[in-house]
Amino acid sequence: MARSEIDVNMLQDYLQEVSYPCDKQDILDFAELHEVPWDLQVWLEHIPDREYQSSGDVLRSLGTIH
Question: Above 70 in pLDDT, residue 53?
């Protein structure tokens, strides 16, 4: 799945609303509750299961999975 700059910006907008620190499940729950678009939720399912300190932390982890 190719990630476009627009999609990454949209994902970043959503992630900035998450309360940090949080773990993967907190992020997935937030995405579902706030009706984050499905393709972005799929990306989030691939992040490592650990604690995240910021939206940038989540985005960096996404950059390492492909």
Answer: yes
